[in-house]
Amino acid sequence: MERDYDxxxxxxGPGGEGAAMKCAKAGKRVxxxxxxxxxxxSCTHKGTIPSKALRQIIQRKxxxxxxxxxxxxxxxxxxxxxxxxxxxxxxxxxxxxxVEILAGLGRFLDPHTVEVLAASGQKRRYTxxxxxxxxxxxxxxxxxxxxxxxxICDSDTILKLTETPRSLTIYGAGVIGCEYASIFRGxxxxxxxxxxxxxxxxxxxxxxxxxxxxxxxxxxxxxxxxEKYSRLEPHDDGVTLHLESNKVIHxxxxxxxxxxxxxSDKLGLENLGIVPDGRGSVPVNENFQTAHPHxxxxxxxxxxxxxxxxxYDQGRFAATHLTEGATEYTLVKDIPTGIxxxxxxxxxxxxxxxxTDQKVPYEVGHAMFKHLARAQITGRTTGxxxxxxxxxxxxxxGIHCFGDNAAEIVHIGxxxxxxxxxxxxLNYFIHTTFSYPTMAEAYRVAARNGLNRLG
Length: 455
Ligand SMILES: Cc1cc2nc3c(=O)[nH]c(=O)nc-3n(C[C@H](O)[C@H](O)[C@H](O)COP(=O)(O)OP(=O)(O)OC[C@H]3O[C@@H](n4cnc5c(N)ncnc54)[C@H](O)[C@@H]3O)c2cc1C
Known about the structure:
Helix content: 25-40%
Bound molecules: flavin-adenine dinucleotide
Distance between the termini: 71 Å
Radius of gyration: 23 Å
Low-confidence stretches: none
Number of strands: 22
Largest sheet: 7 strands, mixed
Shape: globular
């Protein structure tokens, strides 16, 4: 039976785009279903792009607190220009590769048929040989929190605030909570960050966690650990957060940043017999195939690591599996972490805690930004690079960095760490000339520091 398309992709975030582009370039007839009015996904419209555009404005100013009187709306308008540029670029990719865009909400009727419900209410059915589900995730909303109240926001609705808050409580100190704590404090607001866990971002290296906690507090963010809300009371002019510890926190607005849910509920997965887990994530195998081998799922919809970078590569990886029958696992493993707090944080590979647990004989080399000429020139002296390497083979096993441009800096070490066998060696940084003054020089300094520790 002739199907309408070879491939239908649902969702136009990075996961969907990666899959659609790979399939189109492999000569497949591809259609993309998107329920939002523009392509780009939550990544472009609600997550990565607007938050990073906001942060960039603060970074450009030498003194964050100058923003005290800034109008939040003006700042949001700046991020809108970046969003528009991204949308135009991404739309061009689809047009250039002849991927047809089907506007509406996609829902499976059977394993080879999707119904698309347009905003006009019109329904159309389309069939395909294979499918990629890349519908992303949304903020988790517990039922006892009144998100209809204008003073209670999540990471989607915070971008629609029409007022400029003077104070903000952020409930949840994961990556999104910590990033927004830095951003809003940087805009001059009084920020309370309520962490439900004992530590910030416990998956990071301990030294980096300590640095983040120190710098957030130094910026003036109030951080409370191991707290749980008992009640949230919105008023006309603010929000009162009651904690189980009997602490009470008042602020103009509250940003709920405690967890996300996969967008699996409207996909008609019950018609395929696919059962998402309690967080709405769709189970997949190592090739990102669901219980139906011709239906792949990628990106936030499958859960960890919930990063735009990972979503795009998972899309490409899964599409390569479909079009070529096999694929390289390296594309989806060892995904670096980039966290755009102030200071920025980035890492790849194992941390000291993991190496200790695994009894790996490792050593550590540090470079402090304050000792680098480049950092002294730019005035961005807060930060550190640490390289973790095997004591005997000198193989690099982890790179951790915080400070200005940490996410860029980590990629230099990642390129060496990804080399096979003996090519992955700390010696690369000893025997290579780095331009002076650069931040890349931190690798030479850290490598020497590490070798000195070997005695
Ligand atoms: C505040 C914030 C900051 C972030 N910062 C970063 C960062 O700095 N770096 C990073 O790597 N990641 C970041 N992320 C995470 C990143 O945004 C996500 O990992 C990424 O967007 C996931 O991509 P995706 O393709 O899975 O889905 P999404 O980007 O969520 O896109 C899914 C698309 O599917 C559409 N859709 C959903 N259901 C249907 C349906 N049934 N039919 C049709 N269309 C549908 C949606 O409208 C949406 O357009 C951030 C997230 C947030 C919330």
